[in-house]
Each structure stands twice: as C-alpha cells, then as structure tokens.
Known about the structure:
The protein has 106 residues and is an all-alpha fold. Helix content is 81%, strand content 0%.
Amino acid sequence: MAWILLVLAGLLEVGWAIGLKYTEGFTRPLPSLLTVLSMIGSMALLGLAVRTLPIGTAYGVWVGIGAVGAAILGIVLFHEAVTPARLVFLTLMVVAIIGLKATSGH
Length: 106
C-alpha cells in the first residue's frame, strides 16, 4: 500500500510542477489553487508512504517520478527540446527509480 501512496504522491508532484507554469507566478486563481492542492496532497501522501518505506528510497522515487513526469509533460505540453541526450538521461532516471524500488526491501 505504501508504494501505491508513493506513486500517487509522485503523480501529484508532476501535477504541481506543471501547474506552476499555468499559475503565471500565482497570479491566476484557479491554476494557483489546483497547484497548491496538488502540493498539499503530494506531501501528505509522501508523509504516509514514509511511515513504512525508507525515507531515502521514498524521497528518491518521489522526486524521480516528479522529474521524469514534468520533463515528459514539458516536452508534450510546452514543446520543450527533445534531444537524444535528454532522452538518455530521462531513461536513466526511470532505471534509477526502478532500481530504488527493487533494492528497497519492501
């Protein structure tokens, strides 16, 4: 169950990272509200997950999900650069997330 909570926390992190772009410096009320709610939800779920998961593993996976998700959505939504090097490093981040999960002992 902790891993499910952690993945959900990571997905909400993606949501608030992308949401920051839409808030335009927190000047737009609805995107700002949704972004803040995503932040709160993400932290709350991370807090629940670390009750049973090691903090180093949980935090690394949480950040990794957020970073990979935000980078992919940045490419899709905001037409950010897609280079071979960027794709290699995103792939390495996914491998690192899988490695942390596989070696966590949970």
